[in-house]
């Protein structure tokens, strides 16, 4: 299973935000929506072997985690508004300590980065990391940040983790996921070696 | 200058569409908006050496072309609604045979694919094409389609053009642009060879 965790530093933790203002009052929720898109969509198909975890850290509640599971998700279209509507629904149901399904394949629970780091061994996507193309065996799970850098407290939690980079320029989180999945696709299918 | 042309088979040719229904009444305009995003955005920066041409073929008018120029564009944010709002403005001004600027860095004119193919030698992004990683010198200009395939008439116009593929799976147009730009970034910076 491939897994991506994206930290949304300002992302709303209540379902009261407007679908017409994802970058503003929803706390750059548009970035997280594009990460759902790049994690899960193929042309006319879904990546059923991918899970995408969104860590929401904005107002008004303490951190929450929303999970989209490619194997189970329904009612999801590629546009930002579609994934935002499913996030909004997830944030509108009572939120406990364990994942609870809000719509098929979408789940929500309390807690954020420190909890998920204790559960899954995520590598970190970082401009200063090792080139993914040169790594003999790529990890299956990756952590990314939205438009803001990881906080000093996050960096402390992440110390010692493997760090990987997808290219020479600093990219948006969703673009980074797309490039990484392309490298994984090539390796899984043996496409690169046979075509080069 | 890097150039991308994306054909929107159903994309609205008038500025009357609703920003709240980009996939529906605007004719999958969300796809074209994501192509603007992937063509032009870096993290906290713009790709100033990229132009993205959108060929709009939907109702109610004959084909129009909207151009976003990375070197000049303003008022553009990464979210779909932002680029859609600039497209809507472009479609709301009188449209002539030559490009006319609607907002800084955004232009509109009459005409579509056949005209632009006569002006710029676009290669075609095609799942059956040659792997971009194996191509010694990559072209600078590429043609892509939205969720629909090129029509038989289009295919006839495109006969004999070089065809390239970015990977073993069929991807959305915006993801394809992201992967291609990553390959170009690596080559331009010499990053790949120095890091491997």
TrEMBL record, chains A, B:
GO cellular component: cytoplasm
Keywords (A to Z) from UniProt: Cytoplasm, Methyltransferase, S-adenosyl-L-methionine, Transferase, tRNA processing
Gene expressing this chain: trmY
Family stated for the protein in its record: Belongs to the methyltransferase superfamily. TrmY family.
Biological source species: Methanoculleus bourgensis (strain ATCC 43281 / DSM 3045 / OCM 15 / MS2) (Methanogenium bourgense)
Protein name: tRNA (pseudouridine(54)-N(1))-methyltransferase
CDD domains linked to this entry: TrmY-like (cd18087)
Catalysed reactions listed for this entry: pseudouridine(54) in tRNA + S-adenosyl-L-methionine = N(1)-methylpseudouridine(54) in tRNA + S-adenosyl-L-homocysteine + H(+)
Catalytic activity, EC: 2.1.1.257
GO biological process: tRNA methylation
Keyword DNA damage: no
């Amino acid at each position: 299973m491939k897994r991506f965790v994206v930290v949304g530093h300002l992302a709303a933790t209540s379902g009261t935000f407007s679908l017409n203002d994802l970058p503003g009052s929803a706390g750059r929720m548009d970035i997280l929506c594009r990460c759902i898109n790049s994690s899960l969509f193929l042309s006319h198909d879904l990546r059923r072997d991918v899970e995408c975890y969104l860590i929401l850290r904005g107002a008004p509640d303490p951190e929450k985690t929303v999970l989209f599971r490619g194997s189970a998700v329904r009612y999801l279209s590629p546009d930002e508004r579609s994934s935002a509507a499913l996030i909004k629904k997830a944030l509108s149901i009572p939120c406990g300590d364990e994942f609870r399904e809000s719509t098929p394949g979408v789940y929500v629970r309390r807690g954020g980065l420190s909890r998920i780091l204790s559960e899954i061994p995520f590598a970190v996507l970082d401009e200063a990391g090792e080139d993914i193309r040169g790594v003999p065996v790529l990890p299956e799970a990756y952590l990314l940040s939205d438009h803001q850098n990881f906080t000093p407290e996050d960096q402390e939690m992440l110390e010692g983790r493997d760090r990987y980079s997808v290219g020479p320029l600093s990219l948006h989180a969703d673009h980074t996921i797309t490039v990484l999945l392309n490298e994984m696709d090539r390796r899984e299918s043996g496409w690169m070696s046979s075509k080069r």
